[in-house]
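User: I need a structural model of WD repeat domain-containing protein 83 from Parasteatoda tepidariorum for a docking pre-check later this week. Nothing fancy, just the predicted structure tokens so I can convert them on my end. Input:
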Amino acid sequence: MGYPNILKNQLTCKQGAVRTIRFNFDGNYCMTGGSDKSIKLWNPFKSSLLKTYMGHGYEVLDVQSSADSSHIASGGMDKSIFYWDVSTAQIVRKFRGHAGYVNAIKFNEESTVILSASVDNTVCGWDCRSKSREPIQVLRDAKDSVTSLSVSDYEILTGSLDCCIRRYDMRKGLLCQDNLSSSVNCVNFTKDGQCVLASCLDNTLRLTDKEGGEVRSEHTGHKNER
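Assistant: Understood. Predicted structure tokens for WD repeat domain-containing protein 83:
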């Protein structure tokens, strides 16, 4: 399989700097978050803007769709998490508890809980169904900004600028931690769930064994330059 090399479409977002772009669960739509505090919902195949969501006080840094595409969660530099109704563009819930920017947002698999990762070194869980504005759980193990999140049916994976990836087994209440010797800015489970792929600020992608933590392979080529 070759690398993609044909531009299929282009969206003119008019949101200032585009800080995040995500497809919805089935890949039919995408969402963009910008420095102008807005979120926009698009049909990327027709380059058509479907709806705009306004409410954040500062730049939007991440956005995520629920599994049934009925709701959107977003977070940003205003330290807040917004839970939106897609069809009405109204805010259903607003959660505030972080002491710093919200870097990353994820739903759990049932889309009943929003997970947020922050510059304040924490990951918070928020119950979408409850009227409570307090987090139902706070993970405080990182020693620096938590930059990235990935979620499976029973695991939470985080990457942090403290050079560590952390995997929380929510069934057993266990934490597994691996140090990659470089700040981590993005993490994901592989499709088979056996490995973790992490991108690091030393220009390296590292594929690690999920259970043992051993680095299976390293991939270089990117250049982190100014």
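Before docking, keep this in mind: The chain has two domains: 16-140, 152-225.
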